[in-house]
Amino acid sequence: MISPDWCRMMAAYNTEMNRRLYAAADGLDASARQADGGAFWGSIQGTLCHLLWGDTTWMSRFDGWEKPAAGMKQSPVMITDWAEMKSRRVAADAKIEAWAARLSPERLAGPLTWYSGIVAREVSMPFWITVGHFFNHQTHHRGQAHALMTRAGAATGDTDLPWVLDLAALGLN
Known about the structure:
mainly alpha, Four Helix Bundle (Hemerythrin (Met), subunit A), 60% helix, 7 helices
């Protein structure tokens, strides 16, 4: 099972990697960000928007956030304004870190029950499994966005978790 410390570390990693990805994407023009690169969610911007959609969807289950108005298929175009998307990403990351700071081993060990539109039924499973999926989903789609950005000529710098985070500042080293 995962721990609250692991969740805090992953939330901090999420924030830092999103900062790096959005900074790299800022160096590209809008047409490069919006060009279909053959990724599952199409473009750099579409992939990053889907990731924000996914984070918001899961956090609506985890912490009572408002669910996105768009469905999963519309997630790549849920936010078309780049400045708005960047602002919402920064706000979401801060809220995810605050949520992770409040997690307890007891909460992680408990259940989560929700209605899944993807499987069209109520689902229940240990909370820690869904939280692990949440952070894995982030890493997966950031990897896709990173590959698209690299192809477009943008650079994010290092992405390796032990070198990206100040583990001592998180109390983990």
